[in-house]
Amino acid sequence: MKRLFTYFLLALLPMLNISGLKAQISPGRLSKAHAHLEGLSNCTKCHVLGKKETSSKCLECHVEIQNLTSIPKGYHGSSEVIGKQCHECHGEHFGRDFRVVVMDEEKFNHNLTGYRLEGKHREAGCKDCHKPELIMQRISQKTVGQTYLGLGTECISCHEDVHQKTLSITCSSCHDQNSFSPAPLFDHSKTSFPLAGKHKTVNCALCHEKEIRNGKDFQRFAGTDHANCTSCHEDVHNNKFGSNCLKCHTENSFRDVRSISTFNHNQTDYPLTGMHVYVDCKKCHPNNLTQAIRHSLCTDCHEDEHKGQLARNGIATDCRRCHSTDGFTPSSYSLEDHNSSTFPLKGAHLSTACTECHKKTDSWNFSISGESCINCHDNIHGNKIQEKYFPQGNCTSCHSEKSWETIGFSHDKTNFRLLGRHQAVSCRDCHYRETDGSINQQFRGLAMDCENCHEDVHARQFMENGKNDCERCHAFENWFPVRFNHDKARFKLDGKHAGLKCIQCHQPTDRLIRNYIIYKFDDISCASCHS
Question: How far is Cα 377 from Cα 399, in angstroms, rounded to an integer?
Fold first, then answer.
């Protein structure tokens, strides 16, 4: 085969310019990359006989360059390179150690590759990106580390996909080349959840939570639930108003309420009734309409007019026991309620206005005790009545709740039983005395002698040992001397005397100061009456 090629070359010599023969034979050894093409028999693998242009042969082997120039794409497809002959940049036959590819990394214009270096990429060295482990494919059976070709232009060619295929691999739709965070090119308004109000300033991590996925840190962006506000926010209303918070709130603030006129307060824990319907919202919610306020007791909003008087064991009594939302007056506290208290209403108390007992001053007073009448009523008796008849100021020992004039005291408890006409006599007739225009009471030490109350019309005629014993002659039914027996007197009645009227013998005196009937005579002889 070699002999045949020699014959062919000798036949060709006459047609060659002898002076250029030396130039047609290899002028030097090939580089290491092309060393396998050394020898005259391989010349036509790279050269076209009779032509200086060898690019077509180069591209037959370097198909990756041919592909780029045909698109055109990459450095070899750029306007500054395409159309040039390969040998203009890449020399050969200059020895084994000759560098076929000569590039000044400092002056290389990366923009010609179609991938403009911006931001942090400007600071990166060529080997930071163009390294074997990042090159996606082997080029022309060459060792990957010997070429700058084969590196993808997608970000994930060099950088880890921290989104783990949950987002597009076109990172430049969100990020620029300055840094991964933040993502300045991301436009939330183009998503299914445009940001408005306070959402514009919320830290992304508050909605897009971080977690561990596939053993690596992962922040979830795609698939974040935002169908309802409750996807991110706690429903403090426990779904009482439904899941669409935007019916009442805006995205500027939870405290920013849209239209209070359409708000249905009856869906809350405190339906508005009575006068509450007409109260300005800010009266109860002074700071903001979404302010959580206490409302279990009326005193949470209203001042306790009763100053804690109705509290039991330190706990305020619910005002709704007596009042309604229709107004503070009239009170709904009923007779049945009062009768279940420590002071049931009876008699005249049933028709007594509440203010008579509970508002004697400008303020209401419900702390009074009904155990003693003198807690409300003046004790006009003072200490005039002995304690045993007036225990602890309890007026009911004598009086009835129907009226003060209705007396229920039993005089039998005393040493003076009321008999006859005394039973119909008013207490005042015996126990009240008017002296010099003033009325004085006398219960203690009141003498039981008849003349203590009654006048001695007999002018002391029957007094014995300084006392009159009226009961010797009189009973308690009337003043007639039903008990007097003339037979026991000094002058017994017999004969004609028995039928005489008393006045026929017992005549009144003719004294000017006071007349009285003479019952006792010094002289009881017949001559004293008969002449």
Answer: 12
Longest CA pairwise span in the chain (Å): 228
Rg, the chain, Cα only = 66
How far is residue 513's CA from residue 196's CA, in Å, rounded to a whole number?
117
- β-strand partners of 403: 400
CA 249 from chain centre, in angstroms, equals 17
Torsion over CA of 301, 302, 308 and 309, rounded to 10 degrees? Answer: -150
Q: Which amino acid is at 346?
A: K
Neighbours of 177 (CB within 10 A): 16
Among 400, 422, 396, which Cα is nearest to 411's?
422
Token representation of residue 264 = 């249905």
Residue 221 CB partners (closer than 8 Å, separation 6+): 163, 166, 167, 208
pTM for this prediction:
0.46
Residue 216 CA, chain-centre distance (Å), reads 41
Interval 406-434: pLDDT, tens: 888 889 999 999 999 999 898 888 899 88
Amino acid at residue number 461: Q
| Number of C-beta neighbours around residue 151 at 10 A | 19
What is the three-state SS of 81-105?
CCCCCHHHCCCCCCCCCCCCCCCCC
Cβ 399 vs Cβ 406: under 8 Å: yes
